[in-house]
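Moderator note: this is an archived Q&A kept for reference. The question asked for a predicted structure of one protein chain; the sequence and the answer are reproduced below.
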Amino acid sequence: MCCLPPRARDTRESLSVTKGLKDEMQRRRCSRADYSQKNISSTLKRDRDTFVRRSKCFPFCGRRNTTEEKICTFSTPLEERQKEREREMVYSLLSRAAATTTTTTTTTTQKWRSSSFPFPRKKKKGWNDANKENTGRRRRRRRRRGIRAVVQSSSTPNNPDDDDDETTSVIIVGGGLAGLAAATRLQKDNIPYVLLESSDGFGGRARTDVVNGYTLDRGFAIYLSSYEECNRIFDLDDLDLRTFYAGADVRFENRFYRVADPFRHTADALPSLLPEHKIGSPLDKVLVGLVRLQTVFLRVKPLQRESEKTIEERLSEFGFSDEMVDRFFRPFLGGIFFNPELTTDSRLFDFVMRSLALGENCLPAKGIGAMAEQLVGKLDENSVHKNAKVEEIKNVEDGAVEVRVNMVNKEGQKTTSIKRGKKCILAVEGPECDRLLGTKDKQREKGVGTTCVYFSCDKPYDAKNPMLYLDGEKYKGSKGGKKTLVNNCCFPSVVSPTYAPNGKHLCSASIIGVPSELSDEQIGERVKSELSEWFGESITSSFELLKVYRIPFAQPVQTPSAKGGGKNAFEQTCESGAMKNVYLAGDHRDAATFDGALMSGRRCAEYAKSNGMF
C-alpha cells in the first residue's frame, strides 16, 4: 500500500502515464507502417482518442483553450506535414491573388499570421533534421516578403515613397565616354554600379545616327590614332579606323592650296615652299616642321606643364606670320577647339600637334558612336539605364548618396525611383553638374558650340584623296574676312565608304557657333550656296539636306584663365567640393578630347575605389 499523500500519489501516477505516452509516441513515429496512406485516418483517430482520454484524468498533461474551454488536440508529425502543405497552398493562392485583390490579400495574410496552432512548431532534433527545418523557415520567410512586395507594388506602382530603395556601391550619372569609362573600370574590379543616362542612347556628344542609310556623327569629330587611353581601352580592329589625308586644302582667292605633312607627303609639301603658294611664306612652312619636332621630342607630356599662354601668343612667339595664322591656323584649330580667336590654352596646341605628328586623323567605319557602343557591349546590361533623368542628388545621414531619378520603362511608362549608393560619379557637362550640385561655377557654365550640316550627293569633289577643306578667307585681315558660315568641310564617304549607301556620297560642313536666328532650311540653303563657290555647281547640284545638328555646348571653355596655369590644370581633382562622396568626371576636368574624357572617367572610378570599402 502506498504511503504517499493523495496529491503526491496523483503526481507520481501522472508522470508515469506521461512517460508511457511519450514512449508510445516514439514507437509510432519509428514505425512507418502506421503512417502509410491507408492507415492515416485510423492512426490519427487513435492518437487523438488516446490523448483526450488520458487528459481527462490528468488535465495538466494537456492544454486548455481558455476561451472555448475545450481540450486541444494533439499534433503528430504527420499532421505537421499536412499543415505545412496547407500553408504552402495558402501562400500560392495569396501570391496569385495579390496583384488583383490587394485588400483581401492583406487581410488574409494577417489572419494567417495571427493564427496559432495547438503546440509550438519547434521540433526536437530527434523528430526531424534541424537543417531541413531551418531551410523551411527561411523559405517561408522569403514567401512572406514576396507577398508583401506584390501587394505593395500593385497598390501604388508609380509612387516613389512606397518603392523599395535600390542600393549599390557606385551610382554613375551620365552615359558619355567619361561615364562609360568609369563603369568599365568598376566592372573590371567587380564593384557593383548603376549607370544612369538621361537621353535615349549612350555616348553623349560622341554619338552616331543612321538617316536614310547615311551614317551621321552628331557633330564633326576626328579620332586621332595616337590617343593613348583610346588605344588602351578600345579594340581597334573592331573600330576599323579609316584615315584622312595628312594635310588640308585651304581655299583662298577662288582656288585651293594644299598644306601637306612634309614627312608623309613630301611630294605634295614641296610646292608649298614656292612663292606662288598663298598660304604662308616658305619660312612659315619651315617653322611648322620645327614645331612638330619640338612637340615630339621636347614636350613629351605637354598637358602636365605650367603655362598661362594662349595659342595666339604661342604662335606669335614662334614667329609665324599673320597670313599663316589667319589663313591656316584659325580655320584649322578653330575647327578643333571651336575658338577661331585662338584664346585656347597653348598646352592644348602642343598636345594636338604632338598627336598629329605621332598618329593620323581617322574615322571609325561605323561612325564615332562605335566607341560608345563598344564600351556598352562590355557592361552588364542590367546595370546601365537610358531614359533615366536624375532630378536630385543629396547626402543621407550615413554618408551615402541618394539619387532621385525619373525613368521610362520598356512600355513607355514614366516612373520615379530612389537609388542609393556609397559613392556617386557625376560624368555630365558643366552646366548639368552645377544644377545637380546646387553650385554656380562661372567657368563651368561657359562653353563653345558648333553646328554640323549634312548633305547627300552623287559625287565628291576629290574621290581619291580624303581631304579636309578649310576656308582661308573667313578670317583674312583685321576686319574679320568674309561673313560666311562654313569653317571647314569634308566628304566622310571618301574617308570610309560605309558612311553612305552604294553609289552615293556624304558631305559634312561645320559652322563655329549656333546661328539661332536661322532655321534648319535656311542654314542648309546658305551652306549649299557657299559650297557651290568652293566646289562648283557640278558637285553641289545633287546636294540634298539630310540633317542639321545644333550643339550649343560642344566643349567647355579651355582658356588659361578657365583652366589655370598649374601642372594639374588638365588633371583636376575628382572631389566635387559640394557634397560628400560625390566625384566629378568629364572633359571639363581634363582636356576636351576623347582621350581626356576616358582618362577622367577611369581616374574617377579609381579614386572612388581607393576612398571606399567595397
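Archived answer notes: Residues 167-205+369-445+560-610 form a domain with the FAD/NAD(P)-binding domain fold (CATH 3.50.50.60).
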